[in-house]
Amino acid sequence: MEKTTIQVDLRTLLLLKKLKDDLKTKSYDETINKLANIKIKSELESLSGVLNKKPLKEILRDLRDEDDKF
Residue 21 domain-assigned? Predict the structure, then answer.
């Protein structure tokens, strides 16, 4: 895998160090990926909860534009 360098503020670096320790990850890359996966999983669960509460017809109707001719 190709490695790269990114610039972050000192505050961000300190936050990444704390998160790395808290999550018990081996690298900052692993820390960032783990956080991203947690965020995505959370959003999918949230979306799932919303979609399960509405009938499919209502969801689709809400997605259509007023000028939609389907």
Answer: yes
Q: Is residue 29 in some structural domain? A: yes
> Domains in the chain: how many in total?
1
Residue 30 domain boundaries? 10-63
Residue 28 exposed, middle or buried by CB count within 10 Å (0-12, 13-18, 19+):
middle
Cβ contacts of 20 within 8 Å, gap of 6 or more: 27, 28, 30, 31
At 1 the pLDDT is: 80
CB 30 within 8 A of CB 22: no
**Is 57 inside a domain boundary?**
yes
3-state helix, strand, coil in the chain (%, to 5): 70, 0, 30
Q: What percent of the chain has pLDDT over 70?
A: 64
Record the pTM: 0.60
